[in-house]
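Trying the structure run again after the queue cleared.
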Amino acid sequence: MNDDTRTEETITITKGSTNSLHIRCPYNPAYIQRIHQITGRKWEPKQKMWIIPYTIAAIQE
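Done. Tokens:
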């Protein structure tokens, strides 16, 4: 099997601003269900990413 035929399911978390984190992940109902449990989350459809508060509580969730 060629390495190019693998399907990658990478979740990327980057710091957005001083008070937010940006999460990009492939569509997976389990991922979406988990993100919905984070208080203060927001979906940005144009950028196709989730924004969550950069707090200890949100990170723990």
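Residues 19 and 55 are 7 Å apart (CA to CA). Worth checking whether this holds up in the mutant runs.
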